[in-house]
Amino acid sequence: MTTVAVARPSADLLRTEAFLAGRWQPGETGRTFPVTNPDNGEVIAHVADLGAAETRRAIESAEASRENWARGHTAKQRAAILRRWFDLVVARREELATILTLEQGKPYAEACGEVTFGASYIDFYAQEATRLYGEVVPSDRPDRRIVVLTEPVGVVAAITPWNFPLAMVTRKIAPALAAGCPVVLKPAEQTPLTALALAVLAERAGFPPGVVNVVTGQDPEPIGRELAGHRLTRAVTFTGSTEVGKLLMAQAAATVSRVSLELGGNAPFVVFEDADLDAAVHGLIGSKFRASGQTCVCANRVFVHEAIYDAFAERLVAAVAELPVGGGFEPGVQIGPLIDDRAVTKVLAHVEQARAAGARVLTGGSKHRRGGGYVDPTVLADVDPAMTVAREETFGPVAPLLRFAGEDEVVALANDSEYGLAANVFTRDLGRAWRMGERLEYGTVGINTGVMSSELAPAGGMKQSGVGREGSRHGIGEFVETKYLCIEGIASANP
Ligand code: ADP
Q1: What confidence tier does 335 reach under pLDDT thresholds 50, 70, 90?
Q2: N or C: which end of the chain has fewer CB within 10 A?
Q3: What is the average per-residue pLDDT within 283-297?
Q4: Which parts of 119-193 are beta strand (E)?
Q5: How many angstroms is it from 164 CA to the middle of ligand 1?
Q6: Whose CA is nearest to atom 15 of ligand 1?
Q7: Is the CB of 183 under 6 A from ligand 1?
Q8: Atom of ligand 1 nearest to the CA of 189
Q9: Does the C-beta of 189 come closer than 6 Å to ligand 1?
């Protein structure tokens, strides 16, 4: 089989032990768990399997490093270390992408893109570290000064998903580190190798021992309970399912620790009758089929105006049927395998339920002939808002097309969800673009674009899609305390 030319990762990046208190260590029990390649199910590595006890030690080591990181280093010194980390990540981009594709399955070109995207958060927050300004507020009394200080919140626990094994890590921990917080990271059990490789480069960049900790483990429950519930954890930042997000929020309530949660979505993608149809098809391919449909901002319900429904469906099917499916290292591939069998079963069940309820399969609709984790890129027509495929997040390469007739109707349909993460609208009417941007109850709204992610912009959800924002100056705010310093007795000089 031909493959693209890929960088073989050097041994120094391939770590399988956890990184605690500045040391690479196996778990207390010495147990490991397998990490598999979603392309073929082969075991790539065995990684240290840690639990609650080691997580506690990681939190304690983070706390022990806190004072030095927050106060012993100036913002400028922290920025310099982050910047070195950024340079190292960029220099090892292709090797990191190889590790990412091996454990996650996404096409190598997409993995390279993720490394660049993920690194941009480190670069941005290295700069932002030096811009965490306080305020001096005009006082109500002549002998008193009102000063507002920004201070790091303390130990941050970060729990990340498997769909972006690199970018979700940097997007959470770069702002925390920049703010002066030590972190304990728990990567998804499916994709720990990318996170460990990032930790290798972080260590080399010069973060002091204990500032960056990576706890790997097969069973997330005890690790998560410890991370969210420990009295020294001051903020929990999580991306993953709504179900786990709610659990972590409840656990964090015990110590009133902050939470930032980016949870599930049910993104509407609205195509009006005046849209540029080719641009809309292109946007939908980007939104729906990136990472094989496994992102929380992927379009999940495609609302198409009835006047252009058939024309749009035809153009979409022509594009989707062409999408090359295959292993991440094969040339030109755009659709990789889903993460595991459970994901395949769920995606096919959504398709089957829709078909049984009257939807038409315009292309795809079954397991891909390669077998394994591969599903045909699929387009469904005549989908009804009540069908499972339109109510739950499918997390796979399936575009369900729904019909609408008017703007008010589509706003109501689009907002009829407990989720509110991302939405897209295609229209050439400026007034309508603004109205839709304002009326859709979603944290991110893309107008005439399918892909909005940027380190410069705040991303996050409304309703049950989460709390808090990542990216931009808002992202670092999640890890900053606002302190009011009141200084009195300065109105006159001492005798
Ligand atoms: P998915 O079903 O897409 O894998 P999850 O929410 O289960 O989404 O996973 C996202 C992250 O949350 C992963 O790192 C996973 O290990 C972690 N996780 C899963 N269950 C728990 C839990 N009970 N407590 C803490 N973290 C968890």
Answers
A1: very high
A2: C
A3: 96
A4: 135-137, 144-152, 155-159, 183-186
A5: 14
A6: 188
A7: no
A8: 16
A9: yes
Catalytic residues: 262, 296
pTM value is 0.97
User: Residue 190 CB: number of other CB atoms within 10 A?
Assistant: 18
Indicate whether residue 188 lines ligand 1 (CB < 6 A).
yes
DSSP per position, 19-60: EETTEEE--TT--EEEEE-TTT--EEEEEE---HHHHHHHHH
State how far the Cα of 463 lies from the Cα of 263, in Å rounded to an integer.
Answer: 10
Check if 220 has its Cβ closer than 6 Å to any atom of ligand 1.
Answer: yes
Q: How far is the CA of 88 from the centre of ligand 1 (A)?
A: 29
Q: What are 33's two structure tokens? A: 């768990």
Query: What digits encode the pLDDT tens for the residues 439-455?
Result: 999 999 999 999 999 99
Q: Which residues pair with 85 in a beta bridge?
A: none
pLDDT in tens, 121-139: 999 999 999 999 999 999 9
User: Is the CATH number of domain 11-263 3.40.605.10?
Assistant: yes
CA dist., res. 96 & res. 88, Å (int) = 11
Q: What is the 3-state secondary structure (H, E, C) of 86-137?
A: HHHHHHCHHHHHHHHHHHHCCCHHHHHHHHHHHHHHHHHHHHHHHHCCCEEE
Residue spans of the domains in the chain: they are: 11-263, 267-447
